[in-house]
Each structure stands twice: as C-alpha cells, then as structure tokens.
Design brief:
This protein is of the alpha/beta class and about 325 residues long. The chain is built from 15 helices and 5 strands. Helix 13 packs antiparallel against helix 14. The longest helix is centred in the last third of the chain and has 19 residues. The radius of gyration is 24 Å and the shape is elongated. It starts with 8 loop residues before the first helix and ends with a helix. About 35% of the residues are buried.
C-alpha cells in the first residue's frame, strides 16, 4: 500500500481512454464516434459530481491526439478563472494557436462552467462563433441551467448519470487489490452508500480509510465523520417509543463521539426517515419530515445545535406517545 498521499488514487486510477469508462455506455458510444470521424461539435457535459465528466473530456482528447494530447488542450477551472478577462485573454490566445496535424481543431475544457459570470459567458459565446473552425469547447457543469441558452444551443448535450453500485464497488475492489489494502466487502458497500454514486468521493474515502489499516465499516464512518446509521435509527426509535432521556443521551454521545454538527445529524436523520429500515406510517413520516425541515432552517440561521436537536427529540417523543 502507498505509504503517503503523494499520488492520489483518484488521479492514479483515472480511466485513460473512453473504452475504460463504465456506466455511461450511450455517452461513450457517441464520443467514440467523434474520435472515429476526427471531428466533433462543441460539447456540454452535465451531471452530478464524480460521475466522470472531466475524465471523459480527457479520455476523448487522449483518444484524439494520443499521449501528447495536453499540448493541444487548454484546461481552465471556471470557478477560479471565471471572469471576462480570462475568456478574452487565455481562451482567445489559445484559440489562435496552431492546430495539431491530422485534426483540424484544438480543445478547450472549461470545468465548472456553471460558475462563470454572465459577462464571461457572453464573451465565450462570441469566441465559440469566431474560432469554431479551429477550436472545440467542452463545457463541464453540475448545473447546466446556469449556462446561458445561447451557449447551450451551440453545444451537443451529454448528461452523465450517477454510477451503479456494482461498478463503484468493483472499481474500489480493483484499487484496493492493486494497492495491497485489506478490506471487508461490507466496507466497500458502505463507501458506495456514503458517496451516493460519486466515484471521486468513494476513492478518497477508500484511501483515507486505508491509511488507518484494514478497511472496515467502522474505519469508513470514522474517516468521513458520520455516525453509523444504526445509531441514528436507535435514537429515533427511542424518542418515538417515548424514551426521551435515552434518546437525548444517544444524541449527545453521537455529537461528542463523532464530532458532528447539528446540520450533519439532521442530514442523517433525513436519510433514515426515508430509508427502508425505519418502519412508520406515511402520515407520521410526513409530519417528521416537515418539522425536521423547520429544525434545519433554524440551524442554518444560527440557532444552537443542542437546543434545537433536543427540541426535535422532545417533539418526536410527544408524537410517538400520541400515536400509541
């Protein structure tokens, strides 16, 4: 196993070619067609974080230009360099440079393009028109609705889906085996549940947990700073059963032992309410979700975590007693 994080596993195990990308079969098929034709329109990659958007852009460029693809690709993170000056200077300068042999265009990758200012997007729209003969743009965004319509209409749209559980677990197992990491199968499935289809987050969790030794369910929850779902469920059940003091003791232990904020606990409670493990009538589930939203709003506005969560447990206790 690597003794340090000098080479992050996220980069080390990034797919290098389109054919290595999984769970995005339709997207890979369309992009491969562009490689075969050695031509493509401007592209807009959209979808949740960690689903392979940036990886697909690099894999496409590598398949087009070969291993020396970086000299024909300009990559900018629009969340850092999102002003109109960047668009006018860096992008314009690169767009004017020479094209690679055999392929009539270069590629500009704009990551997190949904963070660009409106003026920068207007400038980008004009550049996409002026230099379309020699430059192709790949815009990457988590929220494509923040991209202005004139740019969207100039791009072929690709929507990436969250990765399937089997694909994430298989990749984590491949990485762990290659790095000589001991692990429990349940731990890999737990990593998937926490990452919610975000492969980058899943690999980072695996590497962090591996730094503690054998990757177990306990070590996974420890490195991500989350309470085990069973403990949160036990707390909710105790409150609904009318055992307020027991539920409050569990709450304080979870907050202290895991170092969680009130918002962290609210998110886990929300997840448990709509999970399959906590059995309750739908009407009760609706009431709890409604009041939990109120508690979350108070916490966001600066209310005390302990007071608000204790009030929530007290409310649950009263609800449970009325229901029985």
């Amino acid at each position: 196993m690597s003794s340090a994080f000098d080479v992050l596993w996220v980069e080390k195990y990034r797919p290098r070619s389109l054919k290595e990308i999984v769970n995005q079969e339709d997207i890979v098929k369309r992009l491969t067609k562009f490689v075969e034709e050695r031509n493509m329109p401007h592209l807009l990659f959209a979808g949740p974080a960690g689903t392979g958007k940036t990886t697909a852009a690099h894999a496409l460029a590598r398949d087009l230009y070969g291993d020396s693809y970086r000299q024909f690709v300009l990559e900018l993170n629009a969340s850092d360099e999102r002003g109109i000056n960047v668009i006018r200077e860096k992008v314009k300068e690169f767009a004017r440079s020479r094209t690679p042999p055999g392929i009539p265009f270069k590629i500009i990758i704009l990551d997190e393009a949904d963070n660009m200012t409106s003026d920068a997007q207007q400038a980008l729209r004009r550049l996409m028109e002026l230099y379309s003969a020699s430059t192709r743009f790949i815009l990457i965004a988590n929220y494509p609705s923040k991209i202005i319509d004139p740019i969207q209409s100039r791009c072929a749209f690709f929507r990436f889906q969250p990765l399937r559980k089997e694909d994430v677990v298989e990749r984590l197992r491949f990485i762990a085996d290659n790095e000589g990491v001991e692990y429990e199968d349940d731990a890999l499935e737990t990593i998937y549940e926490i990452s919610e289809g975000d492969m980058r987050k899943a690999i980072n969790i695996l590497q962090s947990a591996a730094a503690l030794g054998r990757v177990t369910v306990d070590s996974v929850f420890k490195v991500v700073g989350m309470a085990r779902p069973r403990e949160v469920r036990d707390m909710l059940k105790a409150a609904l059963d009318g055992e307020f003091e027991a539920a409050r003791t569990m709450l304080r232990r979870i907050m202290i032992e895991y170092g969680l904020s009130g918002e962290d606990i609210v998110r886990q409670i929300h997840k448990e309410i709509f999970g399959n493990e906590l059995k309750m009538p739908e009407e009760q589930r609706v009431l709890i979700a409604d009041y939990l939203g109120e508690i979350h709003y108070r916490l966001v506005e600066g209310s005390d975590d302990d007071i608000q969560l204790t009030a929530f447990l007290a409310w649950l206790t009263v609800l449970g007693r009325h229901a029985s």
